[in-house]
Design goal:
Mean pLDDT: 85
Low-confidence stretches: none
Strand content: under 5%
Number of helices: 4
CATH topology of the domain at 57-167: Topoisomerase I, Chain A, domain 4
Order of helices and strands: HHHH
Largest sheet: none
Structural class: mainly alpha
Oligomer: single chain
Distance between the termini: 123 Å
CATH class of the domain at 57-167: Mainly Alpha
């Protein structure tokens, strides 16, 4: 008769497993323990309202220069407008390419050149506004100057559009 070693392993395994469980021992409960219970209240801390830092002196100086440049350009535009208006009125109904039409076109181009100085200042103001917005800076002063320059440029645009319609 042959002896089978596998048969000896079965009783040995049963004895080993029986040693793990002793009579009277209970398995731990899966219920929530007192330490695992959530107690108390959670109140979020009120956030501190954001206050932007003051505008740096260099930006204030730049704003003042841009406002002065735009105002100067607007005054130059307003000074040139009556002369351009009279040249364009004289060329009203002139044939395309005639001397009158050419003089009126040059006068209109002069007005557009004066307007471009104000538009350059407006573009620089836009850049200052974007930089301050990205950095979380104060925008009130920049927006006020920008709104003033925008109103001046819009007035110039309306004047140029009206004169251009008269020229055509």
């Amino acid at each position: 008769m042959r002896f089978n070693r596998a048969l000896l392993l079965v009783p040995l395994l049963v004895l080993m497993l029986a040693a793990c469980a002793t009579p009277g021992d209970e398995y731990p409960s899966l219920a929530i323990r007192d330490a695992e219970r959530v107690t108390g209240t959670l109140e979020p801390v009120a956030p501190t309202p954001y206050g932007p830092p003051p505008t740096p002196a260099a930006v204030v100086d730049r704003l003042d220069r841009l406002a002065a440049d735009a105002a100067s350009a607007h005054r130059a535009f307003l000074a040139e407008a009556p002369a351009a208006r009279s040249v364009i009125a004289a060329a009203s109904g002139a044939e395309f390419g005639s001397d009158g039409w050419a003089r009126a076109s040059v006068a209109l181009a002069g007005l557009e050149g004066s307007r471009s100085r104000a538009m350059i200042a407006l573009a620089d103001l836009d850049r200052l506004m974007v930089d301050a917005g990205v950095e979380g800076g104060e925008l009130t002063r920049i927006v006020a100057v920008r709104d003033t320059v925008t109103a001046q440029v819009n007035e110039e645009n309306l004047t140029i559009e009206g004169l251009a319609r008269n020229l055509r």
